[in-house]
Structures are given as C-alpha cells and as structure tokens.
Amino acid sequence: MRSLLRWETALVFLLVVVALGGQVSTDGAFLSGGNLFYLGLDIGEIALIALPLTLVIVAGEIDLSVASVLGLSSALIGWFWNAGWPLETILPVVIFIGALAGAVNGLLVTRLGLPSLAVTIGTLALYRGLALVVLGDTAVADFPAAYTAFGTTPVPGTNIPYPIALAALLAVLFGIALHASSFGRSVFAIGANEEGARFSGIRVKRIKLSLFVLAGAVAAIAGVVYTFRFSSARADNGLGLELAVVAAVLLGGVSIFGGKGSLFGVLAGVLLLGGLRNLLILQDTSTEVLTIVTGLLLLVSVLAPSITRRLATLRKATT
Amino acid sequence: MTTRLDAPSAPPTTARTARKLSDRVGRVRELGILVALALVVVPTALVNPRFIQPQSLRDLLLNASIVALLAVGQTLVVITRNVDLSVGSVLGLSAFLTAQQFADHPGTPLLAGIGFGVAVGLACGLLNGLLVALGNVPSLVVTLGTLYVFRGIDYALAQGRQVNAADLPDALLDLGSARVAGVPVLVLVTVVVIVVAAVYLRSYRSGRELYAIGSNPDAAVLAGIPVAKRTLTAFVASGLVAGLAGALWVARYGTVDAAAGTGLELQVVAAVVVGGVAIFGGSGTVAGAALGALLLGTITSCLVVLRIPAFWQQAIAGALLLSAITVDRLLALRLAKALRKSEGSSHA
Amino acid sequence: MEETDLSPPVVELADVSKAFGAVRALSGVSLRLLPGEAHALLGENGAGKSTLIKTLAGVHRPDAGRVLVDGEERRFTAPGDALAAGIAIIYQEPTLFGDLSVAENVFMGRQPLGLGRRIDVATMHARTAELFELLGVRLDPARPTRGLSIADQQLVEIAKALSFDARVIVMDEPTAALSAHEVQRLFGVVRALREQNAAVLFVSHRLDEVFELCQRATVLRDGAFVWSGELAGETPDSLVRRMVGRELSQLYPKQDTTAGEVLLEVRRLTREGVFTDVSFSVRAGEIVALSGLVGAGRSEVARAVFGIDRPDAGEVLVRGKGLKRGSPTAAMAAGIGFVPEDRRQQGLVMDASIERNTALASLGRLSTFGLLRRRTERALAQDWAVTLRLKFARLSDPVGVLSGGNQQKVVLAKWLARRPSVLIVDEPTRGIDVGTRAEVHRLLSELAGQGVAVLMISSELPEVLGMADRVLVMHEGRLVEELSRAEATEERVALAAAGQAVAR
Amino acid sequence: GTTKDSAGQNTGAPTGTAAADPKAPLKEGLKITFLPKQVNNPYFTVAQKGAEQAGTAIKSEVKATGPSDAAASSQVTYINTAAQQRQNALVISANDANAVAPALKTARQQGLKVVTFDSDAAPDARDVFINQATAQDIAVGQVKMIAEAIGGSGEIAILSATPNATNQNAWIETMKTELAKPEYANVKLVETAYGNDDDQTSFQKTQGLLQAHPNLKGIISPTTVGVAAAARYLSSSEYKGKVQLTGLGTPNQMRKFVQDGTVKSFALWDPSQLGYLATYAAAALASGQITGAEGEKFKAGDLGERTIGAKGEVVLGPPTVFTKDNIDKFDF
Ligand SMILES: Nc1ncnc2c1ncn2[C@@H]1O[C@H](COP(=O)(O)OP(=O)(O)OP(=O)(O)O)[C@@H](O)[C@H]1O
Ligand SMILES: Nc1ncnc2c1ncn2[C@@H]1O[C@H](COP(=O)(O)OP(=O)(O)OP(=O)(O)O)[C@@H](O)[C@H]1O
Ligand SMILES: [Mg+2]
Ligand SMILES: [Mg+2]
C-alpha cells in the first residue's frame, strides 16, 4: 500500500501506458527502432542536465542558469574552433569553463548567502550574454564529421544514441552518489534542514558549491552534445531549456523545497515528458496541445500525491 | 526541586538602539534601489542629455509600468512564501483575448473591454490559487504547470492570428499614449495599483496576515489565520493584476499575438528580488518591487542609449542584476552585524 | 476519584482517542477543566500531553470521543474555532512570525483598528507594552521577533495568550525556557487569571512548579488516562510513581571520578557583542557546568567552540592542539561532540527517519569508499535506541512524529554514537521527563567515568549542582566565577550569575 | 589533432542523382509536410494558406506542423518525424541553416524531398530553395525607399530580427554595399539593433535607437515584426513624421501607419505565393519532374512556369512596394 502510493510507481505505470498506447495508435511506429533512436536524441541534453540539477534541488537550491551555460559552452566551442584550436583541447577547456560558471553560482550562494533562485536568474542572463559576446550572431558549423557523427549515429552494434549512453553512464554514477553514499545522505540532510546539517558537522557550503560546479560542468557537457548533434555552435543554443529541465525534475517527484526525491523518478520523468512529446508529434498533434499536456503533467505530479493522501485519510475516516 | 537562577531587575536599555537600526534596515532597501537608479541614470544623462528629456523619461516609466504592475501582484504572492510563474502566460492570454474582443466586436466600450481582460486574469489567478491553496501543493510547480497550460490555451485560441493596431479602436490605442499633466495614463494606473496594494499590505489585518503566512506557515495555521483563503486571495490578486497588465499591453503595443509576454516571469521575479522582497516570504514591500522593475528597465534602456554593442547588453544587464542583489545582501549583513554589536555592547 | 463538582467544567474532554498510524497517542482520555482552577497535565515524554492539547485546540481531530465547552459538544475543525470559543493556547514549540514585530505577533488577526478599518499601530504597541509590563519584561513592541532568545520568544507567546482575555488558557511547558524571575511573574499572572475565574491547563516536567501553582492534576501514561484529582494529598514521589508506573532511581547519579589530562582548553575566546575573553579548560573525566542567566551567552560560547560561529579572537585547543576556527568538521575530527539546545532546528532533520538522524554525525565512519553500509547504520541506530530507551514504532519513522523528549534522545544518540572524547551538551534535559532525565544524567556521569570531558550548559541549578565537578558562571558575556563542586552552592552560583560576585 | 584546418569539410551524401524527367506527370495524393520557422506566426500562417491552396490544386495532402518557438534547433524533431512518417516531401523555412542540415540529410537519404523557402538551409541539405526575392532586390529597394523618405541625407539605423537570422544578415550585408555607392554618400548607417522578432523588444529597441542617436533620420526594419513595432512606437511618440521608417511588413499590420503618415512606403512579397510556389516545387520533386539542378523547369499553377537558377534557387520575384495609394488592394 505504502509503495503503491509512491509517485515513482505511478510514473512507471504512466510510462507503460504511454508506450503501449503509443504503440497501438501509431501502428507500431512509436516503439520502432528508428523512432526510439530519435526519441533518445531529443531527450539527451535534458537527461544529462537533469542529473546534477536533481542533486541541486534535493539540496534545497535551484540552478536556472544551466541552459545558459549550455549556450555559453556551445559558443565557446565555436569560438575556439574558429581560432584554430584542436577539439581535443577545446572540449576539456569548455567543460572546465562550465564548471567555473557553476562555481560562480555556488560561491554567490554559499559565500554571500544569496538565494539561488535570484542568483541563477542573474547568471542566466549573464552567461547567455557572454555567449553572445563570444560568438555574436555567427554560427560555426564546419566541425569534422567524426565528431558530429556522435549526434547522428548510434553506438555501434546498438540502437542507442551516444548522448543517451553517456547520460546512462552518468545516471549510474549520480544514482550511487545520491542514494548510496554518505555524500548523498548529506545532500538530503542539507535539503531537509540546512542548519541541522551544519550542526552535524556536514560541510554544507562545500557540498553545495560542489553541486553547483557539477551542474555547470554537466551543462557544459550537454552543450558539447548539443553542438555536435546539430553541428552548429551558436550563442542561442538551448535557449529556454531550463524550464523544461526543471519541469522534468519536478515531474520526477523531487520536492522543490529540497530533502526529497529520487534519481530514478527524475529519469522516469524525463522519459515520460520526452516520450509523450515524441508521440504527440508523431500523431501530428499541434504544439499547443503539447504545451498544455506538459503543464497538466506537472500539475498532476504535485496534485496526485496530495489527492491520494486525502483519499487515504478519507477512507480511514469512514471505516 | 528545581530552583533556578533569579534575574534581578532586567537591565537592557538596548531596545531603542536596536529599533532604530532595524528601522534603518527596513528603509535602506528602497533607498538602496533609488541610489542604484541614480547611479545608472546620472552618468547616462551626462553622456547623452537626451536620456532625461520628457519623451525619454516617459518611455522609461511606460516600459517599466507593465513589469512593475506584474511585480506588485507577484509581491503579494511571494510574501506568502509562494511564487507565481504563470504571470507571463496570464498576461499573454489576457492581452490576446482583450485584443480579439476589441477587434471582433468593434463597438465594445473601452472599460468593458479592459474589464474583460481583467476578468480573464482573475479567472487564471483563481485557478492557480485554488490549486495551491486547496491542493496544498508547492506553488512553484503548480504555476510552472499553468505557465504551460495558459500559454497552450493562448496558442490554441489564437491559431496564428495577430491582432493589429488597425483592428483596434482608437480610444484604446490613445490610452496607450495619453497623458494627464504630462504623465502617461498607464503610469498613473500603475501608481494607483501600487498605492492601493501598499496601503493594504501595511494597514489592513488581512494584509498583515499575508506576511504572517509567509513568515511561518505552521504558526499561521495555529494562530487561526485562514491560510487557504489568504493564499487564494494573493493568487487572485496576482492574476487580476496580470489581466490588467495584459489589457494595458494591448493599449501600449497595439500588436498582439499569442506569444505576448513570453518569458516575462523571470523578469518579474528578478524585479521582485532586486526590490528587496524576500524570496522565501515574510518581508518586502510593493514599492520596493516596483522600484526594482524600474531599475531593471532603466538599466536596459541605458545600455542602448550608451551605445553598448548589442551583443554586450545582455551580459551587462545580467552582471548588474547580480551586483544589485549582492550589494543589497552585503548592506543587510553589515547592518545585522551592527545590530549584534549594539545589542551586545549593552551587556558589557 | 469522585469529585465534588460545584461549578460545571468550562471545558471537558470525554473519552478522547487519537492515533497516528500505528501510534496510539491518546486512548480514551477524559479531562475536566473547572473555572478558576489551575490544572496540571502530567506524564512522561510521549505520554500524549501535547496531543491532548492539540486536540483541544482543533489542530487534531479526535478519532473518537467528544470535546465539550460549557457542557455543549463542539467540533473544532481549525485552530481558529478553539480561539473563538475562548480557548487560548501556548504551544510547546514557539509559533512566532520572525519577520513581524513583537506587537504584531501578539495581536495577529486581532489588531486594534482605527480609521477606515486600518490598523492602529500606536494603540497596538501601547497595549503590547502593557502586557509586557504585567509580565515584567522589557521588550520593544516594535522590534522584529527574529533574533529573540528562546526565553523572550516564550514570553511573547505568553503575552499573546493573555491578550485574548480567554476563559481557558492552555500552557504546554511555558516555563521550560524561563528563568525563575520570569516564572514567578508568570505565576502571578496565572493567579490573577484564576481570580477572574479563568481556567488554566498547565504542563511542566518540574513538579515543584506544579505544586506551587496548581490545585488539581491529571496524569497520562502511554496515551492512557491514569489518574485525576486534587494535588493537596499528593507528594512529588507519588506523582512520579503515577507517571512512570515504577519507582525512580536516583536523579543525580554522579559518580566520583578523578580528573585526567586537560582535553578541552578555551583561551581568551571573544565574539564581539556576544561574549568577551572567555577562558576555561575541561579535563578528562570531568563534568564542567556552564551556568548563568538565560541570554548570558553560554550557548554562543559553545557554538564558537564547536566552530558553528567564527570567534573574533582567542583559540580553542583539544589535547593541546589548536583547532581551526569556524569549522565543525575540525572540531569533530578532534573528538568534540555537541548536543545543541534547539533540537528542531539544530539537532534533527525532522522529516528524516530515526536511523538516518542517528547516523548523521557518523557518516564517515559508516561508509567504505564513500558508500554507506546500511546494515551497520541500522545496527547503530538500534543499539542506541535500546540504550536510551527510545519510545518509537519503527526506526524508519521520521523523528518528527516522536514526542519532544524522545526527539532529544535521538539527538543524544546521534552524538554519543560518535564516542566523542569531549562532549558539549546544551540544555540536555530541556523538555525531558523525570525518568529520562535521570537516565541522561546517568549517561553523562558514565561518560565522564569513561574519561570523556563533559561541558554541560544548563539553566537548572539542581542539575548543575548535582552533576558538575566544577561550575563556571557567566554574566553578560563574561566568565565571572569558577567554583569547585564543594564551593558551589545555590547561593554563590546565583549571585555570580546575577553579576554580584567579585569579578576575577 | 582535430583542428579546423586539418578537418575535411563536412559534405553530406549527395542525393538526387537520378535524372529528371520533365514530362513525368504530377503525382496525386502526395504527402507533404509544411514546416515553418514557428507555428502561429502570422507571416507563416499566410504562407501556409498558400501551401494548402496549392495542395488542394494538385490533389495532395499538405500538413502543417512545427515548433512554437523559433529556437535554432526545435525544428529537428519535426524533420525526423516527417522522415519517420514516410512523407514524400518537406517544405521548410530553416531557423538555422546548419542546425537542420544533418537531420535534413538523413531524411533525404530516406527518400524525402526537401524544399526550403523564405530562409535557406545549407545548400547540400536540400533540393530546392524558393527565394522570396534576391538579397540584391530587397536590399536595393530598402535603401532606395529610406533614402527617398529622408530626402537623400542623414543618419539611418537598421532594426533587424535575431542576430543570427541568415536572410536578415545577407540583406544587411548587401545594404551596406549599396550604401557605399556614391549616390548614398550622405546617408550614414549608424547602428544595427536586434529586436529578436519579438514585438516588445523591437518596440523598446526602437526607443533606444532614437535616444542613442539624436540625429537619426530613418530606420530600416527588414522584418515584419520589427517594422510594425517601430511604426507603432513612432506613431505614438513625438518623433512621428520626423523620423522615417521603411522595411518589410504585411499590409494588414502596416495599414494604419501608412494611412496616418508614419510610414511612406514599405515592401514585401506575398507570403502565400511563397508557400504556393514551394509546394509546387515539392510536388515536382516528388514526382520526378525535377531534381533541383540548374536550368530545370516546372509548372507552378497560377504562378506559371519557373526555372531553377544557380545553386538550386527559384526566385519568386521582386517584392511589391506598398504605399498609401495601393495598400488597400491587399489583404494579408
Ligand atoms: N503528528 C504526529 N504523527 C505521529 N505521531 C505523533 C504525532 N504527534 C505525536 N505523535 C506521537 O504521539 C505520542 C504522544 O506525543 P506527545 O507529543 O503528545 O507527547 P508529550 O506528552 O507532549 O511528550 P513531551 O513531554 O515529550 O512533550 C508520541 O508517541 C508521539 O510520537
Ligand atoms: N536564535 C537566536 N538568534 C539571535 N540571537 C539570539 C538567538 N538566541 C539567543 N540570541 C541572543 O544571543 C545572546 C546570548 O544568548 P545565548 O543563547 O548564548 O544565551 P544562553 O546563556 O545560552 O541562554 P539560553 O539558556 O537561552 O540558551 C542573547 O542576547 C540572546 O538574545
Ligand atoms: Mg509535549
Ligand atoms: Mg543557551
């Protein structure tokens, strides 16, 4: 009974419904290898960024600047490439800069005690602005095919896009970190009661800082993926993606107040949003329906647990 | 069994100093924004005197007035430890429906049309409020959801249609540029809304209860405050104001499609935060929030006027926003420290 | 227990039951409150006192039973209903609005109105000042509530309850944070209320207060009704027997130990505006009490020693080695453990389970290569729950559902699990019942016996005198007196705390 | 290492090697996907009407779909889906010439014919591009209109769409070349601002331009959103009549401002004709009439016979100039 009411279970159930329903209504096109491949490509960046963002939100903070870091990293790839750097150098440098961008967020939040919502709204504008400064209105597209192929071909011998393979690998690492390690335990404690965590000798500031750094670095990796997938480095890449990622994380059952949530739920949330979107487009549903469905899913994600709780107490009260 | 230490006559005379300081903390926020505003405006005006010509000042106020309106509504919500991310979408929906109403029914009286827009906003706010207050669920998630839902409905209703100035009655368009004693009507409307909200929050029981709810939600329940009702009120007010802003948007811009106001929510939240409203509820004023909106709008305008290259403008705006909240925070920290020392010094 | 009911009860609870999941917090409890009486509600931690009060307040709805006001059955669905019926409540945990002024906290929802139904701030402040006058406190009605000490917060709560002019006032451990002076003022006020025929329901773990103030009492044990009657014929021992259902062991089981090497040394510690030039040391096997009036700065010293706050000057040494300033991690690594005074904010993660809370300070020890060993974690929590006689349903239950005293045990377990060599305890028995208190004392004493250096902050003089090998007294942020166990008498400590001892 | 210089150019697989058969009949029942930059954008709604009209005429199914935001990459999902759905042809206005290219190439390998219109994709990723007007035509026209409006001398500024719109940037480049000519020696371009095709932003950028440049005489806004916003601002400010405005706009949006004198003249092609022509080109490709090679011809219904020019481009024709005298004859 207890586990039945869990939101993760409901998400898995919804996923199965969408998969079967989609399969029937599209005559098998939905779960076909080709479509699943594209579905995987479409959710790659969101899945990647959702991983560290889950940890950030569990720790009671938020990072709205991730999409801008993605854009900045994309712009930097283009800029360095134009400057003649080899990609082998560019990629680590760009990921490092992403981590640095995350560190700026983290330092402002931990050192000055500013609310992360405010800080990252600021850096959302700042990093996107820097991306524009770096690359302006130009787009850089002449990347070698060997790299752009990562975004258009599957891992050899499978039907899995490279970004998803990468996300899966990171998901395992993040899952262990959050749910099986003392680090993760500290993250939960910080989210639930920051002062209590500090009084327990948990290095609150350091851990928070590391989470923001992680978010920045992974967002930069997502920028690399994005750039190669579209073989286009531009300053406005990933514009507005932050709300989609936050929506996916919240849909996954992570509490916006921190202290509660699971990575499994978030991955299910990402899959559900992406799958539903893919299915609706496949069925030529108009975008407005897509937008509305995204919103409704979010509402359901918070209302459903609250409603089941009420029903449970009602049932108890009547018997 | 348990005798405890007895305090002789209570010593502290610290109350007065502490109070003066805490008053200053309260006032310094709005003052700080005004100073920041001056810091932005004066150099710009020195470089380009045109910046403080009447037309230009009017434009500044006009541009800020719509975000300021939304910020006022948002403040009511944020004070209760909630947030309304759907304001941009509500504004869009209200703006489109108002414009459509005027375009499709050319005889619509001016006030009736605006009232229609306000009603649309009120309905959206009511939905938000009911979900948050009755569902007892986090408002950030709910309003992120309705952000999508309202925008989707907007698109579905508009079907790619755009209402143009030519379709709108002149009375409405004139409202967008009309002035009373040199002050644009839209600005006056905004000021009236700010004053009403400020007085309500300061001097009415239900207004103070909004602060109480945001300050300590559990205690608010125990104190017998109708938390659900007040929260609902805050969201309804925010929706209503966003509806009004939507109608005024039509008057101001004259061209409306389903995308109006997209992404405005972050600007509004930024204005509220810069205006010194605590994002976790319990403190802040509408005047501060409105000034925050004015400051952000002014920064954007200044960058254009100062001929900062287009590509630099966003980065600089972001950096300035960050410095604004940082400076505000540092000031607050310093005052808190001063407060601690002044209280402590009476011990010694 | 037939009573002579001359006047009908103002409030009556009849056969009230309330369960939280598997926990039966109340089963068939009855209580009658007569006008003009002060009625004590007694019981161990977790006996159901607060639950009973919340049922009366309309916070909880009873599963069975009735609530009657003036003989009429009432159904309170929200706290506002009880207030409207003339029942004012002081809850166990402060319920203040930190951002609002003290006066607004007192009058929230009932602010005096002036022109156009606007709040009349001047009148509100004046009336708040009157209430504070009555209670004998100097608090500025206009100052924000945030930053008030726990004692002051409690006084604001009391002022709030008084402002209702209620017929029934319920006080859940109002004195836990107060000094004797304020307690006496409060009792004076309660007596005045009784003369106006109001009924007072009073919860306290301090039996002397109960005997001083109350005429009748009701005792609960494990959620069940045990006894109700006049206090006149009772003694503290007889009450305790009713509460715990057995004879009590010695309350201050201090073992004699020989002090060893100096484990903790504090040199000229200063934090501006809070405390100044504090130096002392604690030896292995010693219990040193830090005494003083509420607000003297004892907790602040402890926080600075543990590294929560960064001192402006001075140093802390453990076994002669200097500690990094402002780093709890460094303090813990050096072997310091710290049981803070505010368990809800500082001691526990309320939503997390008992086992997770117990493990929270020992994560490093419980993990290999950063990965947690779940079984060891569970075993640790289980061991300490048994050792401290924790009253709980499942180890995986959130600590938030435990009673106040049991929560305090979890905080103790969390720190004892680390086996610290220096243990700082700040008000370790605040809100803890008599039985458990003895256990905590025995535990501290055992720890000292094992060579742990214990620094104990306590506002309870008997606890200080009964447990401490040495007593340090603080007054307004300075250490003013140091007394050996032999020298320490009630009088000397009290004088020093009041600032009337000769400064060293 | 993999540096820019060592890397070979990313040349997608060339397709359409089959020879064209000009006499092949137009197939019926073709499935064509119409993918604008952004759905619910009035300009593309008009273009879509033209495409649907053509679809009815050739008895094929034209299905409009697309993202609601104009971000560079949001079209890719829809391209992939069109390929998945085994559509015959795709008519697309590319948000980002490069971002859509890989997806378009993959789709073409699966047999999808690709026609771009309004804004081109990388040439090797599509079969035919329907160009509304040559950059030359547009730029020359715009410069001429503004020069006439301001009386041949003074400062002007450009209010563009997004900083990376391919077509906008091409036009702006050509305008600069045009302005360098001696007859425009007294016309000085002082700034290019970006309104991001957002009404409010464009509105405020117009204000900014006027404040930053006290001597500004004219503004060119070669984007429908921008020119409407700029006109709206000018008409309600004291600059009305003092600062001239021209650009590319739809008659419905601009009618009020032409009538009240804010704008003397502006230009645009008929977007519905653009959609119409693109759909015919798509059908011709899918039927095998053309392959996209230079010199091939196909019939485009009411628009008559069209010839494919260099780089697979078909030009719709010079834009129409709208003034007070003729604007009432148009409704789009
Ligand atoms: N909200 C709740 N959910 C679940 N269990 C609860 C809840 N509130 C109280 N309990 C349980 O009910 C029992 C009675 O708790 P209560 O707080 O009434 O004790 P108390 O007598 O006030 O103790 P103390 O003296 O420590 O304050 C305890 O076992 C407690 O764990
Ligand atoms: N939570 C708090 N926030 C801000 N200031 C506080 C807080 N708690 C106490 N203070 C202030 O700090 C000073 C020292 O208080 P501290 O708690 O150290 O005293 P104490 O002697 O430990 O008394 P207590 O028995 O109340 O713990 C007092 O002036 C008090 O008003
Ligand atoms: Mg209790
Ligand atoms: Mg203390």
UniProtKB/TrEMBL annotation, chain A:
Q: How does it sit in the membrane?
A: Multi-pass membrane protein
Which keywords fit this entry according to its UniProt record? Answer: Cell inner membrane, Cell membrane, Membrane, Transmembrane, Transmembrane helix, Transport
Coarse class of the protein's main subcellular location: membrane
Provide the taxonomic classification: Bacteria, Bacillati, Actinomycetota, Actinomycetes, Pseudonocardiales
An annotated GO cellular component: plasma membrane
Name the source's superkingdom.
Bacteria
Q: Which InterPro entries match?
A: ABC_transp_permease
Q: According to its UniProt record, where is this protein located?
A: Cell membrane
- MF GO annotations: transmembrane transporter activity
Listed name of the protein: Autoinducer 2 import system permease protein LsrD
Q: Which organism is it from?
A: Lentzea guizhouensis
Ranges annotated as spanning the membrane: 36-59, 66-84, 90-110, 117-140, 160-178, 209-228, 240-257, 264-283, 289-307
TrEMBL record, chain B:
Primary site of residence: membrane
Gene Ontology, cellular component aspect: plasma membrane
- Key word Hydrolase present in the record? no
UniProt-listed CDD domains: TM_PBP1_transp_AraH_like (cd06579)
Kindly indicate whether the keyword Metal-binding belongs to this entry: no
InterPro entries the record matches: ABC_transp_permease (IPR001851)
> What does the UniProt entry say about where the protein is found?
Cell membrane
Superkingdom per UniProt: Bacteria
Question: What is the documented function of this protein?
Answer: Part of the ABC transporter complex LsrABCD involved in autoinducer 2 (AI-2) import. Probably responsible for the translocation of the substrate across the membrane.
> Assembly and interactions?
The complex is composed of two ATP-binding proteins (LsrA), two transmembrane proteins (LsrC and LsrD) and a solute-binding protein (LsrB).
State the name under which the record lists this protein: Autoinducer 2 import system permease protein LsrC
Gene source species: Lentzea guizhouensis
From TrEMBL, chain C:
Record-level GO cellular component terms: plasma membrane
Name under which the protein is recorded: D-xylose ABC transporter ATP-binding protein
ABC transporter domain ranges (all copies): 11-247, 258-501
Q: Please name the InterPro entries in this protein's record.
A: AAA+_ATPase, ABC_carbohydrate_import_ATPase, ABC_transporter-like_ATP-bd, ABC_transporter-like_CS, P-loop_NTPase
Organism superkingdom: Bacteria
Q: Which Pfam families match?
A: ABC_tran
Q: Where in the cell is it found?
A: Cell membrane
Q: Which organism is it from?
A: Lentzea guizhouensis
Q: Topologically, how does it sit relative to the membrane?
A: Peripheral membrane protein
Q: Which UniProt keywords apply?
A: ATP-binding, Cell membrane, Membrane, Nucleotide-binding, Repeat, Sugar transport, Translocase, Transport
Q: What is the lineage of its organism?
A: Bacteria, Bacillati, Actinomycetota, Actinomycetes, Pseudonocardiales
A molecular function GO annotation: ATP hydrolysis activity
In which broad location class does this protein mainly occur, judging by the first location in its UniProt entry?
membrane
* Matching SUPFAM superfamilies: P-loop containing nucleoside triphosphate hydrolases
- What CDD domains does this protein map onto? ABC_Carb_Monos_I (cd03216), ABC_Carb_Monos_II (cd03215)
